[in-house]
Amino acid sequence: MALPRSQQIAFTPGEIEYIAGNEKIKIIPNVRFPDISLIQGDIRKFRPPLSVEVPLWIALILKAEHKCNIICPDWLTVDHLKKRQEEEEKEEEFSRLPFHYMEISQLLIETAPDDVPNVEQIRTILKNIRETRQVKARIGLEYLDDKWLGMSRLSLMEINQIKPFFSKAFEEMRRLNVKENNPGH
């Protein structure tokens, strides 16, 4: 039985993947389709071999049905990810990656590995980036106080992973600070 939203501390990974599915990605359709009207906006007609931008969830469905090829995002290349990995290792701040980089890369690697050049190398670099960012997040939590936590450029999945710990620790620190400042209460 699912918990009511008020009792859930964080999103499930599946919920985050669902949200990431609305991110736009370019495809090269293998079939013709007329314009498609969706609640989130219109998708212009498919005319192979012209590329078209669609929500990720549509791209994944079409790919599974062999009706398109996905154009790998610029940030999901060996060169780009190596630069981000170097930044992660050298800089205190988190490097700039898309807000849903973890979910999008995972979905593309699982569903369309043939559309991701150097997929195994990319998988390794992403793993290294993730591990480095996890260490940075843990270090950031060491500086936690009851007023502010500064960690910018985290992805939604990363925020979701530290949220339960942060929420409990932040609330406990506030409670202790109130007692410290009001000893009679």
Report on this structure.
49% of the residues lie in helices and 10% in strands. The chain starts with 12 loop residues before the first helix and ends with a helix. Helix 2 (56-64) runs parallel beside helix 4 and helix 3 (78-90) packs parallel to helix 5. It has a single domain, classed as Methane Monooxygenase Hydroxylase, Chain G, domain 1, CATH 1.20.58. The chain has 185 residues and is mainly α. The model has no long low-confidence stretch (mean pLDDT 83). The strands form 2 sheets. It has a 3-stranded antiparallel beta sheet. Keywords: Chromosome partition, DNA replication, Nucleus. Component of the GINS complex.
Structure described in brief:
This protein has helices at residues 13-20, 56-64, 78-90, 101-111, 119-142, 156-181; strands at residues 24-29, 36-38, 41-43, 52-55, 68-70. With 185 residues, it is mainly alpha-helical.
Indicate the topology:
Elements: H1 13-20, E1 24-29, E2 36-38, E3 41-43, E4 52-55, H2 56-64, E5 68-70, H3 78-90, H4 101-111, H5 119-142, H6 156-181
Helix pairs in contact: 2-4, 3-5
Throw out a few tags for this protein.
single chain; 185 residues; mainly alpha; Methane Monooxygenase Hydroxylase, Chain G, domain 1; three-stranded antiparallel beta sheet; elongated
